[in-house]
């Protein structure tokens, strides 16, 4: 295990009927006027908008709404909201939706106190020194953004989907009522599940040995996500399974599953290159890219892939190599079973596009920890992912 400091100051309020507490939480920070940020309108269909607004009003909190944050959120929307925040001296952000809304809130929160372009933080040209307090109401479990300090935004003008982070961006309080996720289209539940699994894999297969505690935790999260995603596909309103999936996805990327070991994160880097190219959902991109990455790197760490095979899928027959490969195929079969895409071809990418995607990914520099990946490695992984 590597040395680590674990720090996570986000207060997570989890469970049924918790959204109505938003006003109380915001006012407990002495905040009187907020940006109320959301996506394309799902919050009107499941009652989240009405409940949250009623609670803010009850606590005499003024708000200005900005809507229309899209999946794979874009910098222009962040710029638009920063202007509104600055012009109206808003004191906090209530971010209602999924990772796209919460990540946008993080960029707005940091941009609110910066005179230059918020994109400077992504390019490493400036450091975040102050940020507005953020209060997410999460409506889709996937990214862990509700309890971590990172975000991902697409700079559509430059064709870059990049991440940024600062300990100042941990949400103050996040509200997670799994029951409101019953309205998710099945593919979104699936995207969330794949994203949660992928966050665990990035840490699990990062290359650090002697991390038994973390591995056991990872394996618990993986098994829980697989089990409850299957249930939710049949029964989307199953509250117990919604809760299990939601808490698993939070644990997958609130830092606790990552401590004491390096993460790899090259599959995420490659996926961001894919989704900046054709705007597919992050989880769908990962279902395609991550098993391809696994195929490319598994021989670097056969012991770990054998452990994965045995502990997750109960694969005990064959050589170490065979078990690892079988586990990767079983994971792919699971993704197919739950309706996730498993090839780039299926999502409209053509063979001739792979060069462009590899070049886009390469703008991030060399990727990976288990195996360092140059641009040509990325291209080979994209070829495996193609069909
Ligand atoms: O926009 P609305 O109408 O709200 O619809 C959303 C959106 O279309 C819909 N939705 C959300 N809750 C719903 C619902 N529909 C019905 N009922 C509900 N209860 O779901 C769609 C997807 O929402 P989005 O926020 O895009 O999903 P997700 O949470 O998966 O976020 C994905 C973004 O987060 C980034 C991804 O790259 C992507 O841009 N990531 C952020 C990370 C982080 N901050 O730590 C890490 C991740 O690895 C990831 O990169
Ligand atoms: Zn992810």
TrEMBL record:
Keywords associated with the record: Oxidoreductase
Any single Gene Ontology cellular-component annotation: cytosol
Domain Fe-containing alcohol dehydrogenase-like C-terminal: 189-385
A Pfam family matched in the record: Fe-ADH
Gene Ontology terms, MF aspect: alcohol dehydrogenase (NADP+) activity; butanol dehydrogenase (NAD+) activity; metal ion binding; methylglyoxal reductase (NADPH) (acetol producing) activity
Transmembrane feature ranges: none
Signal peptide start and end residues: none
This protein's record includes keyword Oxidoreductase: yes
Residue span, Alcohol dehydrogenase iron-type/glycerol dehydrogenase GldA domain: 9-178
Record bears the keyword Oxidoreductase: yes
Name of the protein this chain belongs to: Long-chain-alcohol dehydrogenase 2
Protein's organism: Clostridium fungisolvens
The organism's taxonomic lineage, starting at the top: Bacteria, Bacillati, Bacillota, Clostridia, Eubacteriales
């Amino acid at each position: 295990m590597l040395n680590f400091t674990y720090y996570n100051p986000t207060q997570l309020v989890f469970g049924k009927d918790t959204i109505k507490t938003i006003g109380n939480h915001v006012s407990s920070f002495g905040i009187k006027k907020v940006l109320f940020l959301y996506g394309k309108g799902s919050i009107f269909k499941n009652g989240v908008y009405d409940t949250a607004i009623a609670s803010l009003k009850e606590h005499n909190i003024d708000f200005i709404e900005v809507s229309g944050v899209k999946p794979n959120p874009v910098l222009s929307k962040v710029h638009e909201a920063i202007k509104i925040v600055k012009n109206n001296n808003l004191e906090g952000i209530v971010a209602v939706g999924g990772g796209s809304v919460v990540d946008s809130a993080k960029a707005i929160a940091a941009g609110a106190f910066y005179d230059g372009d918020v994109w400077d933080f992504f390019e490493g040209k400036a450091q975040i020194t102050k940020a507005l307090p953020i209060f997410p109401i999460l409506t889709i479990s996937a990214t862990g953004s509700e309890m971590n300090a990172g975000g991902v935004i697409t700079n559509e003008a430059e064709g870059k989907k990049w991440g940024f982070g600062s300990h100042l961006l941990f949400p103050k309080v996040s509200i997670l009522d799994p029951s409101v996720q019953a309205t998710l289209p099945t593919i979104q539940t699936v995207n969330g599940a794949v994203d949660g699994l992928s966050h665990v894999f990035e840490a699990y297969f990062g290359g650090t040995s002697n991390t038994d505690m973390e591995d056991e935790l990872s394996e618990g999260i993986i098994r829980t996500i697989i089990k409850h995603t299957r249930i939710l596909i049949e029964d989307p309103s199953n509250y117990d399974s919604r809760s299990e999936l939601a808490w698993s996805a939070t644990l997958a990327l609130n830092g606790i599953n990552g401590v004491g070991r390096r993460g790899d994160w090259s599959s995420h880097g490659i996926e961001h290159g894919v989704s900046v190219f054709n705007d597919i959902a992050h989880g769908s991109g990962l279902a395609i890219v991550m098993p391809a990455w696994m195929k490319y790197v598994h021989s670097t760490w056969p012991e770990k892939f054998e452990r994965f095979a045995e502990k997750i899928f109960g694969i005990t027959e064959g050589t170490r190599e065979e078990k690892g490969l079988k586990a990767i195929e079983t994971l792919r079969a699971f993704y197919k079973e739950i309706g996730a895409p498993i090839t780039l071809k299926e999502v409209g990418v053509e063979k001739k596009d792979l060069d462009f995607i590899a070049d886009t990914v390469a703008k991030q520099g060399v990727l990976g920890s288990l195996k360092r990946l140059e641009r040509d490695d990325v291209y080979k992984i994209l070829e495996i992912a193609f069909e």
